[in-house]
Amino acid sequence: xxxSSPVLRVRxxxxxxxxxxAVREVSFxxxxxxxxxxxxxxxxxxxxxxxxxxxxxxxxxGTIELAGTPVDLSSPADAKAAGIAVIYQxxxxxxxxxxxxxxxxGRQPLGRFKTIDRAAMVRQAGQLFTRLxxxxxxxxxxxxxxxADQQLVEIAKALSADARVVVMDEPTAALTGVEVERxxxxxxxxxxxxxxxxFISHRFEEITALCERVTIMRDGRLVSxxxxxxxxxxxxxRKMVGRDLGALFPKQDVxxxxxxxxxxxxxxxxxxxxxxxxxRAGEIVALAGLVGSGRSEVVQSIFGVDPRDAGTVQVGGKTxxxxxxxxxxxxxxxxxxxxxxxxxxxxxxxxxxxxxLPRSRALxxxxxxxxxxxxxxxxxxxxxxxxxxxxxxxxxGTLSGGNQQKVVLAKWLATxxxxxxxxxxxxxxxxxxxxxxxxxxxxxxxxxxxxxxxSSELPEVLGMADRxxxxxxxxxxxxxxxxxxxxxxxxxxxxxxxxxx
Amino acid sequence: xxxxGLPAPRRSSLDVVLRARELGIVLALAVLVAVTTISNPxxxxxxxxxxxxxxxxxxxxxxxxxxxxxxxRNIDLSVGSVLGLSAFTVGTLLQNNNLxxxxxxxxxxxxxxxxxxxxxxxxxxxxxxxLVVTLGTLYVVRxxxxxxxxxxxINADELPSGFLNFGNATLIxxxxxxxxxxxxxxxxxxVLRSYRMGRELYAMGSSPQAARLAGIPVARRTIGAFVVSxxxxxxxxxxxxxxxxxxxxAAGTGYxxxxxxxxxxxxxxxxxxxxxxxxxxxxALLLTTIGSALAVLEINQFWQQAIVGALILLAIGADRLVxxxxxxxxxxxxxxxx
Amino acid sequence: xxxxxxxxxxxxxxxxxxACGGTTKSSTESQNTAAPAxxxxxxxxxxPIKEGLKIAYLPKQLNNPxxxxxxxxxxxxxxxxxxxxxxxxxxxASASSQVSYINTLIQQQQNVIVVxxxxxxxxxxxxxQARKAGIKVVTFDSDAAKTCRDAFxxxxxxxxxxxxxxxxxxxxxxxxxxxxxxxxxxxxxxxNSWIQVMKTELAKPENAKLKLVKIAYGNDDDQKSFTEAxxxxxxxxxxxxxxxxxxxxxxxxxxxVSASNYKGKVAIxxxxxxxxxxxxxxxxxxxxxxxxxxxxxxxxxxxxxxxxSSGQITGAQGEKFKAGKLGxxxxxxxxxxxxxxxxxxxxxxxxKFNF
Amino acid sequence: xxxxxxxxxxxxxxxxxxxxxxxxxxxxxxxxATVDNFGTxxxxxxxxxxxxxxxxxxxxxxxxxxxxxxxxxxxxxxxLSSAVMGYLWNQNQPIETxxxxxxxxxxxxxxxxxxxxxxxxxxSLAVTIGTLALYRGLAFVVLGDSAVADFPxxxxxxxxxxxxxxxxxxxxxxxxxLAIVFGVILHATPIGRAVFAVxxxxxxxxxxxxxxxxxxxxxxxASxxxxxxxxxxxxxxxxSARADNGAGLELAVVAAVLLGGVxxxxxxxALPGVIAGVVLLGSLQNALRLSDVSNEALxxxxxxxxxxxxxxxxxxxxxxxxxx
Lengths: 501, 338, 355, 324
Fold this sequence. Notes:
The complex is a heterotetramer of chains A (about 500), B (about 350), C (about 350) and D (about 325). Helices cover about 35% and strands about 25% of the residues of chain A. Chain A is α/β, with parallel strands linked by helices. In chain A, the strands form four sheets. Chain A has a six-stranded mixed β-sheet, sandwiched between helices. In chain A, helix 4 packs across helix 5, helix 5 (about 145-160) runs parallel beside helix 6 and helix 14 crosses helix 15 (about 400-415). With about 350 residues, chain C is an alpha/beta fold. Chain C has eleven helices and 14 strands. Chain C has helices spanning about 1-20, 25-35, 65-80, 95-105, 125-130, 160-175, 190-200, 220-235, 245-260, 275-280, 295-310; strands at about 55-60, 85, 110-115, 135-140, 150-155, 175-185, 210-215, 240-245, 265-270, 290, 320, 330, 335-340, 345. In chain C, the strands form four sheets. Chain C has a six-stranded parallel β-sheet with strand order 2-1-3-4-5-13, sandwiched between helices. In chain C, strands 7-6-8-9 form a four-stranded parallel β-sheet, with helices on both faces. Helices cover about 40% and strands about 20% of the residues of chain C. In chain C, helix 6 (about 160-175) packs across helix 7 (about 190-200) and helix 8 (about 220-235) packs across helix 9 (about 245-260). Chain D has a single domain, classed as ABC transporter involved in vitamin B12 uptake, BtuC (Orthogonal Bundle), CATH 1.10.3470. Chains in contact: A-B, A-D, B-C, B-D, C-D. At the A-B interface, helix 2, helix 4, helix 5 and helix 6 of A face helix 1, helix 8, helix 9 and helix 13 of B. Chain A: One of its GO terms (cellular component) is plasma membrane. Chain A: GO terms for molecular function: ATP binding; ATP hydrolysis activity.
């Protein structure tokens, strides 16, 4: 199956960002002709490992060896030259250039006078796509390609570079079942051609379907590397989490009250269509589904930051105009968005400004803000959420992920919402904070707040929700009660097929 | 999109879109020339065409350099000042000094290359936005020129006749200046289109982050783009000196806006990644022709600037519209994996 | 929404004001003309010229060869007068930068400011402020409004220049045909008054066959003048003469024509500097042109300023004073001092002049 | 690493703001001590009049740049306002009507910019380069190359005059009032909070209920309105309405704003720094001219200061990181 000597050895690498040690003395080997999974919770250090292999970050300590020789990957160009290709979760293509150029960039076939032989370049791209069994027009620009197609272009890029090591960072997160199958077929052929594959995913069924070996990380440290034949999924989960799951999800039982949020037939072409559901006061409703199934778009449309083509949204019996977050906020809706860095926070502004921004009008006196009331309010709410920071005037970007998320929560809880929408509330935050956030949601629900939660983490969905709504490809496909919802039932609804778990 | 197989190397849809953009300028140009010629047939006389081409030559050389920088998602506002410094340097050098034209060209371009390298280094290593850097060097370079020139002027009769002839003489009916501009255009156009280096410039402008991850030597390329822009501005300074013969410290003041206008009208997106030097040169030709046509049509010359402004707005508005259209159509045929 | 209302209110207020009537151009004109003459005091023709007078020159802009010759003459005169010479000026020919320089000169307590106004009115308030501070103001080259300077050095009478320009044009055109004017800026004081005289001259019966087809403006910018000359020849194929009453314009037009195939078909004339025009006179592009000696203007301005500052004259009509090598001068109406008749330059005499 | 970087960046802007004010004060003191006639009350008046247009246009420009946009058309708006003022005056309209109309015109021109940038979503740099040419061109169309003078002396005298017998110029009132208005809006109102939020991240601001498009639109209107006012004041100061009034002023305004520590990328900046930047540029120019240093030197100084204002903190930062 695999060669006896590893293609790439990672030897005791460490990497810190400021005071935070992201990766501590991690070692593992990648073998040619083998697919190697890297798993761990968010924040376990997987993406730091990927970035070190990609030449984006340089390890503080430890070495990376390629075919027995230590290499210094100090830039992406070095990694590329060393034969390491990285495929990111969000592909990094040049939207203005043609697909063929994207594949050939830096390695374009040359003709006379060292000019680029375009015909040959297009031909090569075409051959790669034929080999991958996909039909993408090499002449079209990369702009407008679906995420799945962009992934395929990235793989074609790796193929054309004859990469010895191909690292795939959660490539399937945004793909449909069929697309995943196609990707796997391609990955297997890559592996069978002798490349060493590193595959990062949260989905165990994919790991067991594709990989031979798995390395598990937790809190920046290596837990173990095992052959997949030697380890069960349960064992993997235990190693990843390293603790009892139950305590993480302190869900209190609540008798739901009146309908707080009522969504009727909202559509937005082509992202989602005909979505209807209610959330009652005191209820936690999870909106589950694969990434890209339209969950975030639905909640953003409810809140008004995204438009919608049809349908109505009512809060406490009042109909909200589409496209006006201000009105939604006035009606008591709060949205803790999916992407903390881009949507949730103003990273360059102070903690104080971030916490009080949605309420700046309410905090003003005769229309003026002198700072005192904002500071007091910011202090009150950050304290209430036990946020750790130096000064309120520090940039929010200086905080750790967990504390940043607390700032976002403080910002919205301060508006005293009746309907709290949280989109991936615990993404990228440490375990301790995770439990705090869950406790908070639970107690809010107990106080009569209607909570709508979008989450990709199945344990979170199952642990926290009173009801689970499942979306697939822009449509609501299932509604499961707490009793009905299991990993299998949710995944089945989300993927439209029997899970292989 | 069901056919799987080797697509024939045909014209890419990307190219078609770009060509359509340049075709738009050509059409506008044709209409303008036609209307003007009908009203005054002498507009198409040999002398008139020669004059328009001569006037375009300088602007086009600048626009080509600017396009290279804009394609990388930067901007170079210092070109007018660099032109002035180069023109004055060359003028001083040649003052009562019969040096060969080729030397003048090299010195002028050299002055520009130094300025361009300064811009590039500040942008790249100083981490200062190009707009700020080149706004600063616009002042500095102009100030240095004034310092040096101190209000003196170099007159045509002080320059060697060989040099002045270069500004007016022709080869088989085409002025040298125009030939030189075409040469610059073709070389830059070919490098941008058919050399790895050129494609990397587009890649950097299209997605700076992806360019870094793709291992493109971003620092070297950024500085290179500014060096090209500076060098061409320097070259344009020599052309300016040869064409007008009278040089003072104010030469080329305010050119930067015309150049940026030509580039934008020529379809180079201000946020990088698309457009071509052909378009930029056509933009320069269109702007110059408008100027001449207004004079011939006896339209108040005051309208010229307003028309240029309206044209810029029209061009970026149209580009936006076309981009949205193309994006929509691409999206529709994008989902084919089934 | 409230802002929209505010705008509406603003507009209504504006309209209401219109209805009530307000300060309009015609209502202020009567006040403006009645500006008081500030030349108080009496002239003492025998007062000695003071030494160490600070005389500052503020031309339209610095980098203009014609200006350089003018102020060069001034420098010589200030030396003879044992004064302190200073030259300041903007790089762009704008009135607003001139104002800043006038303010600076006031601060520096100059005795005399010799200025060529870029805009006759815009520099006025500052010049009057200078005069209030006891500084004498002499204008040259391009006059400021009469109420804000003490004397104006006129290079030649407007009438004389206009006539001589038409005379040269007529000779070169052979008495009939199309002519065009390439002027400086459309609001240049001198050029406009000369053009006015030219129009009157052209209206006379002996010039009936000369047709003025266009007045183009090169803004005293070399390149602009160059392209304007080019435009003229394109638009008027039968053009016989271009008259350019500005040194920048005539040089640019000559250079264009000498290198184009219009050479020999179109004649250029006007006002030019011998050094700049020598080449074109010798290669036959230009047969003749005219000019006074610009160095003398600066020279005369210095002596005028010194005489004013020393109390010899006040700028009133009829006062006499001596201006070094140029001899005696008498102040004309409105404080104008006329330098003398212009010189005509041809291939025969051009080598005798070096400026 | 990234955490510390941002930490120093936070203090860096505060530092620059203090630094620019300190530099300005030092320059003022040194100039008053060493340059003859710099410290006189008369010169103070000239100084204020000279910086007037830059000072007032820089105020709304600061807000525009803090939102991450730019307005290069301000000087052309000034020119068109001046030209229209001259045209209407020639048409024998009363000055009391002309002035409000010119302000209204400025607001409309700003709204046109705002429309292109916020409704059509076009890049503001390209849009305002376009309107820079368009408005200036229209100014020439309206007034040609001619100048209109003889505005009513009562108005022109007010603009160049001082308050009573004090040496304080009347126009300083306008500068101070506008500076207070824009300073309060930027630093002490919900609008100001939204301005910073939009500049830091338009998307995140939208998620917090801010409407970036509307906000920017009105900022462009304010920028146009103030530029229109600057056109009126310019015309009255020189008693000369011309189409080329204020040409090239946009670069000086942008230079002053950036010098004042406002980030061209948006989200950062403070009005006191900008005012210090304006004063610094103006007093340097004035002092150099009084010392008979040519205008050219000022060009070089402006350019170098501009680059240094961004480069300096960057380099200091890098050096600090390197030492660690």
